[in-house]
Write a structure and sequence with these properties.
This protein is of the alpha+beta class. It is built from 2 helices and 6 strands, in the order ββαβββαβ.
Amino acid sequence: MIYHKFHAIRCERDGKKFPSKAERAYYDKLCLLRKAGDVLFFIRQVPFDLPGENVYRADFMVFYADGTVKIIDVKGMETPEFKIKKKLLEETYPFTLDIVK
């Protein structure tokens, strides 16, 4: 078993690999919301170009039935690097990154 530097345990669901149980659990929640009709669809690991040739990958981009679109990142802990990228992301794009812990 390969361990993540923050002790997250890598896992799978529906043939998809997840870096942590928390991200897989959020995927499960989104699947249930999709079945209920609250979520139309969602995309995983969405890349966003940032200034300075940096790229940020959001865990999920969720499209809700009411027309709302949310960019979501599942975090166990927020590193200084993440905080910088989050700030750059929100300065570059017209949305707020939602953090799920």
